[in-house]
Amino acid sequence: MTALDLVTLLSQAIYVVIFFLVLWRYVRAPTPAHLDMTIFFGILGFIVVESRVAGLLGVTQPAWFTDLIVAAVIALPYVLLRLVDDFTVVRAGIKGVAALIGLGLAAIYAYLEAPYPVAWTLATVGYIAALSLYCGIAFVRAGRHAEGVTRRRLQAISFGTILFAVEVLMAGSAGQFQDPEKTILNATGQVLGLLSAVAFFLGFSPPAFLRRAWQAPELRDFLQRAASLPRLPTTLDIVRELERGAAAATGSRAQIALWQEDDRKLRVWTPGSNAPLDIEAGQHFAGRAFEQQRTIFSSHPVRDDPQGADVYRKGRVGAVIAAPITAGERRLGALVLSAERPPIFALADGELSQLLADQAAVILESRALIDHAAKVRAREEATRLKEDFLSAAAHDLKTPLTTVVAQAQFLERKAMRDPSAPSDLLGLQRIVREGQRLAALVTDLLDAARMEQGRLVSDREPVDLGALVSEVCSRQHASPHECELDVRGAIVGNYDRKRIEQLLDNLVENAKKYSPEATPIRVEVWQHDGEARISVHDQGIGIPPTDLPKIFERFSRGSNVDDRKFHGMGLGLYICRGIVEEHGGRIWAESEIGKGSTFHVALPLGEGRRLN
Ligand code: ADP
Question: I need a labelling partner for 396 at 20 to 30 A (CA). Which of 89, 215, 346, 535 fits?
């Protein structure tokens, strides 16, 4: 056996192998493209095997059989043209003319006796080579528009088809030459034939390792973006990003349906519409892939899912691949890829979509874990707050209550021992004072609860802040602190008078509470940039810088505050913040430890005005 014989044998063996592989693929996914691949390699394989068997047995074929083989060879480029048509549009005119010429040639061959006239042989070779070349170029073009593995496979096929055309041209015309040109043409034709067979093999039936290598760049892109996805603000953001990634990796439209455990339905967020769409398990392709836990492929969505026919027609959906998104035992949803035409390599695309769906599962699962952890944290926080609240409330209510009860019992015993004794005014005053403190604490608790619902502020009326501040200050004459007032003009805004009074009371009370006796409190009211501004300044203990950002939070108290010396629950400033914010304003504090604090309030003036 010469080297050239070996080359021929190899390329012929490859054609037969490809035939069986594409036949198997057609059985698994009977798409038009798979059928045409099977016919193409079926013809090639048949011619090869038949000529080998005939050569081995030394039989001469009957004339009709030779005619049949010639017709099959003439049909080859036409099958290629159909394959091109399976995934791009070939103009009907071209298909028609190609078919007519092919039929004409085959018919004439049936009438002719071998040896055939040279002109006919050359015309036939020309027809096969030209049409194959046309298909080769069409494959190149389609490859440019495709993505990922499909792109690389189409490149291999286009290479194989163009080599096939050149091979036909060389082998077909070799007979018209004398040696050595004849041998050179034959030999080159055979080598090209082997190269074309290898290119076809890689394109039509690439081994798994090559497919994976070809998928790698798209998957890498997808995975690179995927790493940060679980941290996106909402699950919907993640779904949108996953859809974008899957669309980029496959070159088709991508949609994710997520399983909603509460409703026991799949939910799809259609782009451009905010209202999600619910799908039952088993309904449409997403529901089926989800229920059956396998990748579903359809090259006839209108026929295979009549319920969604309108949507497919309107969206010009000609093919659908749906893959289940599942993390271990947890069924999370389905990834649906759709395109106008069936993909040329349906199984490879199915494989890729399953890979993407698996990635999506990992991402969605980590998101679910993050959500779960956040929920647990929030629950712990809520429990902690409740515990804080209970201990703070119990502690703060207990002290005045114990005083009230003890004082009352003391007065009771005294009255029983000597009913005619004059009443103990100091003791009674103590009961009243502690009772009032108790009432104030309960009011704070109620206000804090109201604030949670944003219901602190109710009826508004024009309020002159300057006048209100002087009222609050003048109420403090029994206090050892002097209240210095600086009101620059009468500033009137539309506020809830009682709440603003409560705010000022709170700030002034705090200033006094946290300052050494006899130090003055300074309250200023002015207007700045269309806002009413109030500041309350003291020369007290100050607030540690680390506590400053937190003091407006619920139950928050400065770490420099001794509970036994300064009673309080850490609700006052929290309520102040609620009052100010419900009025549309801001509150903040500046402080230096040991030197004093200034609390600032800015309230919108709105309909208010400044009276000079
Ligand atoms: P309470 O006074 O009941 O603790 P507040 O919410 O009114 O609750 O205040 C929260 C914390 O802010 C106080 O515990 C204290 O540490 C700090 N604080 C508030 N006002 C002042 C002030 N004028 N000077 C120093 N610290 C203050």
Answer: 535
Q: Determine the distance separating the centroid of ligand 1 and the alpha carbon of 561, expressed in angstroms.
A: 8
- Report the atom number in ligand 1 closest to the C-alpha of 541: 25
Query: In this predicted model, what pLDDT tens digit does every residue of 29-58 receive, in sequence order?
Result: 888 888 988 999 999 899 889 888 888 888
**Residue with CA nearest ligand 1 atom 7:** 572
Which atom of ligand 1 is closest in space to residue 596's alpha carbon? 24
Residues with CB under 6 A from ligand 1: 510-511, 514, 538, 540-543, 551, 556-558, 561, 568-574, 597
Same-domain pairing of 201 and 256: no
Maximum mean pLDDT: which of 106-110, 189-193, 510-514: 510-514
552 Cα to the center of ligand 1, angstroms = 9
CA atoms within 13 A on the CB side of 244: 11
DSSP state of 274: S
pLDDT digits (tens, 9 = 90+) for 428-478: 998 998 898 888 888 888 888 888 778 889 889 999 999 999 999 887 656
Number of domains in the chain: 4
Q: What separation in Å is there between the alpha carbon of 542 and the centre of ligand 1?
A: 9
398 against 17, higher pLDDT: 17
Q: Are the C-beta atoms of residues 469 and 485 closer than 8 Å to each other? A: yes
The preferred substitution site among 535, 543, 547, 562 for testing ligand 1, maximizing ligand atoms within 8 Å of CB, is 543
The tokens 């806002």 sit on which residue?
Answer: 531
Please name every residue paired with 484 in a beta bridge, in sequence order, or none if there are none: 522
Each residue of 214-232: b (16+ CB within 10 Å) or e?
Answer: bbeebbeebbeebeebbee
- Do 353 and 235 share a structural domain? yes
| 123-141 pLDDT per residue, tens | 889 999 999 999 999 889 8
pTM: 0.53
